[in-house]
């Protein structure tokens, strides 16, 4: 039986493994079907992680994490997990090949992924002008014009954030109304740097070898087509958390989640199920930043150590 199982090998999972093993837990296994690192390995540039002054690609940035985090005895099981459940005080971890492993405690850090819009050119310029993180990439467009696609809280909040950095923000949404909080909508409408363009879709993202140079938009009511010169496109059309493996045979979730299936935790990363902790992008109100995910992982590991000591 495993003392502690960690599901997910991104910054949260790796940090949890480091703190758990260094903290004295002997049998800690990290389940990640590929090489650890997480979705941040797909980022072209990282320059906002404290203490790392060089600008690195996500792949280069995460490379030393693996060596450091496995130094104290963390084991890596290259396996895909199909379900996590709990019977009594023991967690059952079922792999996609049918193998079943038992664990005394679990840290769930399987992460998530921003939804893509499917707009023509989005995949071509992904990471070269198309982004899903204003905090990560907004600085690269300082003083420039950018477009934000989306109509929820995240889209509007990120547009406001970008207005502190960029010259002009075109906020593009397919509906006339927004799904964000009224106070956020009001702040957007009062911001002189943000131009609201509705009900409109982006038909194509255009660019060249240097990256994005503009978008073609279409008003879905009038059919009018227009080209906008922008250097960046920020897409906020939703986020999928990888919590589907917590779904039980009866359709319920193993622990309490919100309406989007993000896991509800307290400040200690404890879920509603004793011995189950969640860290990183899978939890509610996650900042979706590497440094925050790492902090979650450390907190979850420290709490897991305390839980195992008392159980």
Detailed description of the structure:
- With 311 residues, this protein is α/β, with parallel strands linked by helices.
- The chain is built from six helices and 17 strands.
- It has helices at residues 11-22, 58-69, 134-137, 153-163, 182-189, 290-310, and strands at 2-7, 28-31, 75-77, 81-87, 90-95, 100-108, 112-114, 130-131, 145-149, 168-172, 194-197, 200-208, 211-219, 225-228, 232-235, 239-241, 276-278.
- The strands form four sheets. Strands 1, 2, 3, 4, 5, 6 and 17 form a seven-stranded mixed beta sheet that branches. A five-stranded parallel beta sheet has the order 8-15-9-10-11, covered by helices on one side. The protein has a three-stranded antiparallel beta sheet with strand order 12-13-14, with no helix packed on it.
- Strand 13 (211-219) and strand 14 (225-228) form a beta hairpin.
- Helix 1 packs parallel to helix 2 (58-69).
- It is elongated and about 65 Å long.
- 40% of the residues are buried.
List the helices and strands and how they pair.
Blueprint: E1 2-7, H1 11-22, E2 28-31, H2 58-69, E3 75-77, E4 81-87, E5 90-95, E6 100-108, E7 112-114, E8 130-131, H3 134-137, E9 145-149, H4 153-163, E10 168-172, H5 182-189, E11 194-197, E12 200-208, E13 211-219, E14 225-228, E15 232-235, E16 239-241, E17 276-278, H6 290-310
Parallel strand pairs: 1-2, 1-6, 2-3, 6-17, 8-15, 9-10, 9-15, 10-11
Antiparallel strand pairs: 4-5, 5-6, 7-16, 12-13, 13-14
